[in-house]
Design brief:
The chain is α+β, with helices and mostly antiparallel strands. It is built from ten helices and eight strands.
């Protein structure tokens, strides 16, 4: 569907562009809404535009030789997919998979030829691309360091801390946690049982409750939730340190 002007205004770099450029964008950019888990891009796809996330989020992931998923990064509102940007400018196929997150996603698509033209003459477009690139390279470097340095239990704890809501509830299944970490569900189940035996978490189908956030952060050697920046940081858990909550019910 055509993109309303107010949707373009959600992006600071577009607001900085010249009026005539913004007018061209309003007639060329399309707005697409996708439901949760919908495929956005697949390995080998030809990228023919720049995808700007207006709301919701996208998970970008890979598949290993055994078919197990591993999350590379998330794309949130106001961001774009740096792998897709690279594919657009280098004309190489998309090297990963991308799917809509739990709340679905709204995507503004700028046609590839138009964005290349903007990049050649609009400083705001140039800044946006370089900011996206620098942020993502830094985050991927951190992910690589943690993957090589941290045991799986610490990586799981960091993921749980980042996804916990205000009540300390993580609304992800063990299968999905395993996909994010590039492992299998049985490994995640074993790690969660170990954490539960220490009074740190309680588990239920598709939910995990963090019982002692401070101890979890200490185990993960993390100062705060931002220690795992590739996952959107959730609100702080309202459970007081050391407070034990009843196990979750179905």
């Amino acid at each position: 569907m055509p993109c309303p002007v107010e949707a373009l205004d959600d992006f600071a770099f577009i607001r900085e562009m010249r009026p005539e450029t913004r007018k061209r964008l309003s007639s060329k950019v399309t707005l697409t809404a996708l439901p949760p888990a919908a495929s956005v891009l697949r390995l080998g796809d030809v990228v023919d535009g720049v995808y700007l996330i207006r709301s919701g989020g996208i998970r970008v992931y890979y598949l290993d030789a055994d078919g197990r998923e591993g999350t590379l990064y998330w794309i949130e509102a106001g961001q774009s997919c740096i792998l897709a940007l690279n594919s657009l400018f280098t004309e190489i196929p998309y090297p990963a998979w991308a799917e809509a997150e739990a709340d679905g996603v709204e995507i503004l698509t700028v046609p590839g030829p138009l964005f290349r033209e903007l990049f050649a003459g609009e400083p705001a477009a140039q800044r946006f691309l370089f900011e996206q690139l620098s942020e993502r390279v830094f985050e991927l470097q951190k992910l690589l360091e943690r993957t090589m340095r941290l045991p799986q239990e610490q990586r799981l704890i960091l993921l749980l801390l980042a996804h916990a809501d205000a009540d300390g509830t993580v609304r992800l299944s063990q299968e999905k946690l395993a996909r994010h970490l590039g492992t299998i569900r049985e490994v995640v189940a074993r790690l969660l049982r170990h954490l539960a035996s220490q009074g740190l978490v309680a588990t239920a189908p598709r939910r995990i409750l963090l019982l002692d956030r401070r101890r979890l952060m200490k185990i993960a050697a993390a100062e705060d939730e931002t220690a795992f920046p590739l996952w959107p940081a959730g609100p702080r858990c309202s459970t007081a340190p050391g407070q034990v909550r009843a196990p979750l019910n179905d």
